[in-house]
Amino acid sequence: MKTYVCQVCGHIAFDQAPVDCPVCKMPIENFENVPDAIKKPLDPENLTEDERRHIPFIKIGRECNAISLNRCVDVQIKVGAIEHEMISEHFINFIDIYIDRKYIMRAMLTPKRSYPLISLCLNVTSGSLSVISNCTVHGNWRTKVALEET
After folding, report:
1. Dihedrals φ, ψ of 61, to 5°?
2. Where do the structural domains in the chain lie, given as residue ranges?
3. CA–CA dist 104, 102 (Å, integer)
4. Residue-wise pLDDT tens digits, 75-131
5. CATH number corresponding to 45-149
6. Phi-psi region for residue 30, left (φ > 0), alpha (ψ -120 to 50) or beta?
7. How many Cβ atoms from other residues are within 10 Å of residue 125's Cβ?
8. Contact 51/41 with Cβ under 8 angstroms?
């Protein structure tokens, strides 16, 4: 799988670069193929302290309380099993959400005033949910879950 990164806003696109960036609207010329754009744990069964601070954890709820539709899924995303600091020099900058490798949304975070945790309600019941967190010092980290299995 190829990963294309927007050199303006850091958005990651899978397989091919979009004509225009869905986040900052810059044209395709601003995308670069970066094979190692997303960091992976060396041993997923034995995460290091740094990995435990950066990898997004996803909690799925099937009983959507916000919307009266049966086809919604509550999602809570927390970056890090160990709380990540949110100081000006080192913080989680954004959290991007994808369904089946298609970009859905970005949550922008600010140091000192926010925690690296978001909750949202998705209008989907199946597919692959991917979450990418971006640390200003340690780069991009991804977690992926199949919604059917949650």
Report:
1. -120, 135
2. 1-36, 45-149
3. 6
4. 999 999 999 999 999 999 999 999 999 999 999 999 999 999 999 988 887 899 999
5. 2.60.40.730
6. alpha
7. 12
8. yes
Residue with tokens 């926010």: 114
Quickly name the fold that domain 1-36 has: Rubrerythrin, domain 2 (2.20.28)
| The pair of three-digit structure tokens given for residue 150, joined into one six-digit string | 């949650």
To which residue do tokens 């954890």 refer? 57
**Contact criterion met (CB below 8 Å) for 124 and 73:** yes
Strand order in the sheet with 38-39: 38-39, 139-146, 128-135, 92-99, 102-108
Token pair listed for 29: 């010329």
Q: What tokens does 141 get?
A: 């980290």
